[in-house]
Amino acid sequence: MVLSVVTAKKRISLYLDEALKSDLERLAKIRKRSLSNLIEVICEEEVERAKNSGELKDA
């Protein structure tokens, strides 16, 4: 079965250590999120932190 998801979001490839992937999958399950959504939320939080600290300036 092939599922097609219609979204405006961009797809990326990501290489992770197996142990990190496993931990992220467990955390996603605990938080009732998909792995993809969990990684997106973590990235959003880190970018916001970088903006708030001045490390990353709005373009």
Automatic annotation (TrEMBL):
Residues 10-51 form the CopG-like ribbon-helix-helix domain. InterPro entries: RHH_5 (IPR012869), Ribbon_hlx_hlx (IPR010985). This is CopG-like ribbon-helix-helix domain-containing protein. It comes from Nostoc paludosum FACHB-159. The lineage of its organism: Bacteria, Bacillati, Cyanobacteriota, Cyanophyceae, Nostocales.
